[in-house]
Amino acid sequence: MSARNKARGRELENEVVAVAVAAGLDARRVFGSGAYKNHLGEDYAGDVVVEDLRLECKRRKSGFKLLYDAFKQDDADVVCVRADRSPRLYLLKEATFFKLIKKEEKSEAVTNN
Fold it and tell me: How much is the pTM?
């Protein structure tokens, strides 16, 4: 991986943490972006942790055009994709993702009281 691609990935990870924190969520970048999970354990897996969710961050110049086009179609909030013989994946817009996390936090707070 070139130094610039590595830097672009780190920039995305930092952006994700910044917007999550600005939305009032607990978020942190994982040291080494998962490179040390085999040596240091599962706490070092993934790129970013938002609340208790582990995120993998992928950045491409235009490699996700199909996905962006799917969101634009009918202004979708969620896009479901699946490759043959693979599980379904649900992709969310950032605002939808944060809304669901906050809704879950409120639900847990009510349950715990």
Answer: 0.80
Q: Which amino acid is at 2?
A: S
Residue type at 64? Answer: F
Domain ranges of the chain: 1-58, 60-113
Using CA atoms, how far residue 34 sits from 37, 49, 70, 80, in Å, is: 5, 11, 29, 26
Reading the block at residue 98, the tokens are 């944060």
Q: Do the Cβ atoms of 98 and 105 come closer than 8 Å?
A: no
User: Could you read off the pLDDT tens digit of each residue along the chain, which spans 113 residues?
Assistant: 688 888 898 999 999 999 999 999 999 999 877 677 767 767 778 899 999 899 999 998 888 999 999 999 999 999 999 999 999 999 999 999 999 998 887 777 777 76
